[in-house]
Structures are given as structure tokens and as C-alpha cells.
Design goal:
Layout: E1 4-6, E2 19-21, H1 23-43, H2 49-70, H3 75-94, H4 96-106, H5 110-115, H6 123-131, H7 133-150, H8 158-185, H9 189-205, H10 218-226, H11 228-241, H12 246-275
Length: 276
């Protein structure tokens, strides 16, 4: 991690020399602001409504409404297949919220306040991403509880299940940087929501979350096989249900690293322009 430069507030018409914030302090600043974000969620739990209702609606709808037709009547088998995919889909959709929230914060002047404090420039965004951990945990807890009641069972072992949850949370945090970048660019929270939905829906439905990619036309199957949602779904199926893990896991990690490498600096640049 490189050293971060910050600029303190202007006092008495003079501009002090920029301070230098080391990596260790930058991490502490990010964690401190993550705590602030978690406290905000605790004071306004209504922010979690979407991550509570979305997994319930999608799991019930696809298993009981479409599952019989898609799986040839084997609803129980379809539940085992679709649950890991729904986990990926709902966490991916949950990552939209951070961009909407940051965009709303920008209109309150909170970024100006952060810029006046002796903290790392990256801390407000990193803290917001880390605080989103609460949303992912709640989403997965609701989904897995409902799936278990419906008959879903982990067929591997507790260690593999914990690894699957940790991997999925890392996936959500990585892809949330796209939402952060869009949130720093757009003028209103509604525009962030709309643009991110346009991105998330094609990635989700052009994947193997709901149906096997073998049933798709050739051109769509080619995309589904490299789609990050498909790769993560396959990795989770391997960890939770048994099967291949290495191939889809490697592809997922490549996507996650690529998204962070591209969108973290873009988000930081947009943040600096937004707060200037």
C-alpha cells in the first residue's frame, strides 16, 4: 500500500503543507470510519430492508414458482443447485447500496468535513466498503436460514461452508467498488440505483444461477462461462455441495482482483473531484 497524502483544512487564509499518512494509519482511519458506518446502520436498521426481502423473494419465487418446470419436477434438487447461485446474486445486488449511500452523503457536505480532518484520503471510501460487511452478513444469514427451512443442506463440511461465506463477502466488497465509482460520478441517488441495476441484471440473468449454461445458445453460453457471477456460483456450489472448486475459484479471484485494480483508483479520483 502506498503512502497517502492528505490536506488539512485551510486556517486563517493559509494553506499548510500536506501531511503524509502511512499505510498503518490509513488502515486505522478506514476501520474507524467503518465503525461509523456500522453505527449508522444500527441507528437506522431500515437500511437493511432490501437485503432481507430480496433473498426471500427470489428464493421462494424461483424454487416454488419456476423450479418444477426448470428442474423437471425435481424441486429438492433444484433447491440444492440454485441456493449457492442466489447467494451470489443477492450479495451482488446488495453491493448497489453503497454507491447510493455515498452519493446521498455527498449532498450533505460530509465529504468536506472529512477533507478538513487529518485522515487518509482513501479512508471515507474504504470505511464505507468495510461497513457494508453488515449488509452482506445479514443477507446471507436470512437466505441460508430460509433455504435450510425449505430443505437445503450443506453437503461438504463446516470449514468449506465458512470458506464459501468468506469468499462471497470478499466478492461483494470487491465488486462494490464499481458502485462506489458510479456513486461518486452521478448527480442523484436515483441515477446511481438505475445505472447499477442496468449493470447487475444482465450479469445475473446471463449466468448459470438459474439454469445450466449448457441449455443456452452458443454465444450466450460463451459469456456465461466467463461471467463472474457464474464463476462465483460454481465455486460456491463446489464448496457447499461438493464438486470442482479450483477452476471457478481461480476465475473468480481474477475478476475480483481486476475490478479492484481498475475501479479503486477510479473511485478515488472521482471522490477527490467530488469533494473539491
Amino acid at each position: 500500500m502506498t503512502t497517502t497524502t492528505i490536506a488539512p483544512a485551510v486556517i486563517s487564509g493559509t494553506q499548510p503543507s500536506p501531511l503524509r499518512i502511512g499505510p498503518a494509519k490509513a488502515v486505522r482511519h478506514g476501520l474507524a470510519l467503518a465503525g461509523r458506518g456500522i453505527i449508522k446502520i444500527g441507528k437506522a436498521p431500515a437500511q437493511l430492508i432490501d437485503v432481507i426481502l430480496t433473498p426471500i423473494v427470489f428464493l421462494l419465487m424461483f424454487v416454488y414458482l419456476f423450479g418444477g418446470a426448470i428442474a423437471g419436477g425435481d424441486v429438492a434438487g433444484y433447491l440444492q443447485t440454485i441456493t449457492p447461485g442466489i447467494m451470489v446474486m443477492t450479495v451482488f445486488q446488495a453491493s448497489i447500496g453503497i454507491g447510493v449511500s455515498l452519493n446521498a452523503d455527498a449532498s450533505t457536505g460530509v465529504f468536506d468535513r472529512f477533507r478538513s480532518m487529518p485522515i487518509a484520503r482513501s479512508a471515507p471510501l474504504v470505511g464505507a466498503v468495510l461497513a457494508d460487511l453488515v449488509r452482506y452478513v445479514v443477507c446471507l444469514a436470512v437466505l441460508l436460514t430460509l433455504a435450510t427451512v425449505m430443505g437445503y443442506r450443506v453437503e461438504t463440511n463446516p470449514a468449506a461452508a465458512l470458506a464459501a461465506v468468506a469468499l462471497l463477502i470478499a466478492f461483494g466488497m470487491s465488486f462494490s467498488w464499481i458502485s462506489v465509482y458510479v456513486g461518486m460520478l452521478m448527480k442523484t441517488p436515483g441515477s446511481v440505483q438505475g445505472l447499477m441495476t442496468v449493470l447487475v441484471i444482465p450479469l445475473t440473468f446471463a449466468s448459470n444461477v438459474f439454469v445450466p449454461s449448457q441449455t443456452m445458445p452458443g454465444w450466450l453460453r460463451a459469456w456465461s462461462d466467463v461471467n463472474p457471477v457464474s464463476l462465483m456460483s460454481d465455486a460456491l456450489r463446489g464448496l457447499l455441495n461438493g464438486g470442482e472448486v479450483a477452476g471457478p475459484l481461480f476465475g473468480s479471484l481474477v475478476w475480483m482482483a481486476g475490478v479492484v485494480v481498475v475501479f479503486f483508483p477510479l473511485a478515488m479520483r472521482a471522490y477527490r473531484r467530488n469533494a473539491a
